[in-house]
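Section 5.1 Outputs to date
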Amino acid sequence: MAKKKQKNVTVGFVSLGCPKNIVDSEKMLGEIAQSGLFIVSESDDADVVVINTCGFIEPAKAEALEAIRHAVACKRNGTVGKVIVAGCLCQRLGQQLFDQVDGIDAIVGLGQRDNIAQIIKDTVASKQATAYLGRPPEKCSDDRARLLITGGHWAYLRISEGCNHRCSFCTIPAIRGPFRSKPWQLILAEASELVSVGVVELNIIAQDTTSYGHDLKIENGLATLLTALEKIAGLAWIRLMYLWPAGIDKKLIETIARNEKVVHYFDIPIQHINDEILKAMRRPDNKDRIRRLIENLREAIPDCVLRTTLIVGFPAETDQQFAELLDFVRWAEFDALGCFEFYPESGTIAADMPAQVPDQIKQQRVEELMFTQQKIAFAKNEKRVGRRLTCIVDSVDDKGTGRGRFYGQAPDIDSVCIIQNCRAKPGQFIDTEVVGTKDYDLLVRQT
């Protein structure tokens, strides 16, 4: 009698969270694809759904729990077989996650990322819910052999993991562990692999990019790495994300200024500008140093684009301290800015600080700050009308309208260039002229 053919196991995948999570998702997808399991685009109709979660702040946790509950509901309806939850929320909550959402079949910590294919197979065969936890990896993981979900012509390149800073509001060290650099030979091998499959833009990520190499005793580690990455043939753009402000020194600025592939884009999360708030946040910066840094960057690299991230409503933040932050934003004229209201995250020092700011005031401050930044961003866009910009094309619709970016726009984070009558394909660089604006976006035509 002929042996019955075994059904192929289908896997739906949901990726949530920051670029570092995207890299983890891509690595897991690569492991799944190589194992013989079948990845499907519709996660609501799969034998197994894997949800890679973020657990950094309350909104991210809420988004993750909503996605998990949706998958469990599909399981109860019979359209999904098993639900596996992975990533930061698992690392943060551990087995408590089973109590928060009934119906999860497996939870997977960060240290088990590369075992996801076997975990899927074991979960399919098991009738019991299982936790695969433990500590984060002791070394920065090898991220090669990823299945890219970023479009094919750009990708993230993680150069370190974890963080040694102890900001009073942040859960990252507790979730991701201490800072550890990826060996630079491994970074170069990964970068070369990505370029070999068509990537022309690498976006360098870490929790603290400027500390790269400190633990490996590499002098001027990030600057040295950038010089090596510049030599990779076929790579066009290198973008630096998450630059810790206190780590940006003269050597790094000089390296970026002369490097032909590092775009003049600086993502510098300063969080606040008031010295008392910065001290309470346990940040090593102060107002004078941050102001000097901005002045030095614009003097050394006049066409630099600056992006930052701020927190408002930190415990005991007064109206005067918030007004000081607003005045600083008007002075700095950042090209892009993200603002979060403070969330008292369990386990952090700031969560137990006195004089917590009411939610209504925090929300009002976010709105006022973002309105202030909006006027700055719109004015900067108007000044770009008539300028010529080199853009990378990200997509083109069936009407010939393209979406792309000039060097001052990071993918999936910043605004975009809307390309009229685009004649290029995704991944190509084109010369354009700015002909108008649409809110935060630029309207350009191909020349």
